[in-house]
Structures are given as C-alpha cells and as structure tokens.
Design a protein that fits this description.
By secondary structure, the chain is of the alpha/beta class. Helix content is 51%, strand content 16%. It has nine helices and eight strands. The protein has helices at 16-27, 34-47, 55-64, 93-103, 106-120, 132-136, 150-164, 170-186, 208-224; strands at residues 5-9, 30-33, 67-71, 77-81, 84-85, 125-129, 142-147, 199-202. The strands form two sheets. The protein has a five-stranded parallel beta sheet, sandwiched between helices. The protein has a three-stranded antiparallel beta sheet with strand order 3-4-5. Strand 3 and strand 4 (77-81) form a beta hairpin. It is globular, with a radius of gyration of 17 Å. It starts with a strand and ends with a helix. The structure holds 2'-deoxycytidine-5'-monophosphate.
C-alpha cells in the first residue's frame, strides 16, 4: 500500500503532538516527536552542567547517551537517553526553559536531523516539530502548519501540566510560550516557519477531533490519488 510522509509543524503547544499521535494510530504510521529529541539533548546538557559555548561536549554526551524511543507495556511512547527513561524528565520546567538555546546550536540540529531522516526512510511517517516541512522532510507529501492563540495554548499546557502533576502558573506559561515562540522563530538555523507548500490551520477553538479529521481527509486525498 502507498505510504506518505506527513510533516506537522507549529509553535509551542499548538496541539501538534496530540494530533500527530492520533493520526499515526489511525494510519498505522510511525510517529516521531522531534521536540522530544531536542528536549533530550537539553536534559543531558543540564545534567552534565554544560553551557552554550560547549558544543563539542554537548555532542560527546549525546554520543555517550544516544536517544531512543521505546513502547511501554501500556503502549505509551517512552523516550530514553542511553538506558535512562527521560519521558517525564524532559517535560519539566528546567528543560522547557533551556531547550530553545540548545535547539539553536547548528551542530545539534545537524545530528538530530540526520537521525530524523533515517527514521523517516523506513516508511509511513508522521513527524512533528518546527522545521519538518522546511528542512527535515522538504519532500513530505503533506505539510501542515498548526497555529493557535497564545491564550489557548497556555491554557492547554496548564491543563497538561496539572494532569502530569507539574507545578505551574498560567501567566508564567504564557510568558514562556511567547518567549519560546520568539526564540524558535528568530534563530538563524532552521527557524520556525511554514513551508511554502504547507497548509496553515488555526486550531483556536477547534477540537482535537476537528483537527485530526481535517488532516486525515487531506492525507486520504493524497493516498487515493492514482
Ligand atoms: O515541541 P516541543 O515544545 O516539545 O519542542 C521543544 C523545543 O524544541 C522547541 O521550543 C524548539 C525545539 N524544536 C526545534 O527546534 N525543532 C524541532 N523540529 C522540534 C523542536
């Protein structure tokens, strides 16, 4: 059966990963959360006490603790660095606050993009991130760029944090989202921006189901084409 590559990009908390996971299940495709990879490098960087100029050391620690994805017995996707399960640790505030500077290091991006392309080469894939449609998979058959108001994104992240037991403050989340959006879209290497051939979708006030149905419909149009 024909398989396609689907790129879902957008700013922080725009609903990319929730939607991408559902789509991957429905289409039986591999789902790759590239944000989790940048978060994993950030986790390692902080754990080792490394700072912005220490690019070689950051790459060396990544070599020593390679990122991998596994499935839990409840079929949840788990993220590992070396043999350490960092699934929850990479969502903590210290990682979120530092991920933008780590993700702006060109050598780190080069390393992770290589891994991302390698995973995509194995078949049907849904990848979410910031530069998937522009840099990682410019030949993806379907490119979606999700946006939503800062207010709504902050509310979503706040709820998510509450469910995970991560302490948070709504106003602080809003400020952090705005800062991360700014840094992610103004960095020199692979800034957050829609690919020219991406479909822009504003998810403000739209249910998860509404978003997934829309993307699924677009995917089916492509898959049904002779
Ligand atoms: O999607 P997320 O919030 O988990 O991503 C965390 C950070 O990683 C985000 O602020 C920017 C960076 N990132 C990136 O630069 N490129 C990607 N493809 C994915 C994430």
């Amino acid at each position: 059966m024909k398989q396609i590559k689907i790129a879902i990009d957008g700013p922080a908390s725009s609903g990319k990963s929730t939607v991408a996971k559902i789509l991957a299940e429905k289409l039986r495709y591999t789902y790759l959360d590239t944000g989790a990879m940048y978060r994993s490098v950030t986790y390692l960087t902080l754990k080792e006490g490394l700072s912005e100029g220490m690019v070689e050391e950051i790459l060396a620690t990544l070599d020593q603790h390679p990122i991998s994805f596994k499935r839990s017995s409840q079929d949840q996707q788990l993220v590992f660095v070396g043999d350490e399960d960092v699934t929850d640790a990479i969502r903590q505030n210290d990682v979120t606050q530092n991920v933008s500077w780590v993700a702006a290091i060109p050598e780190v991006r080069e390393r992770l993009v290589e891994m991302q392309r390698e995973i995509a080469s194995k078949g049907g894939i849904i990848m979410d991130g910031r530069d998937i449609g522009t840099v990682v998979l410019p030949d993806a058959e379907l490119k979606i760029f999700l946006v939503a108001s800062v207010e709504e994104r902050a509310q979503r992240r706040f709820k998510e944090n509450q469910e995970k037991g991560i302490p948070s403050d709504l106003e602080a989340i809003k400020t952090s989202i705005e800062e991360r959006d700014y840094k992610d879209s103004h960095r020199e290497t692979s800034p957050l921006k829609p690919a020219e051939d991406a479909i822009l979708f504003d998810t403000t006030g739209v249910s998860i189901e509404g978003v997934t149905d829309f993307i699924l419909e677009k995917a089916k149009e492509i898959l049904d084409k002779p």
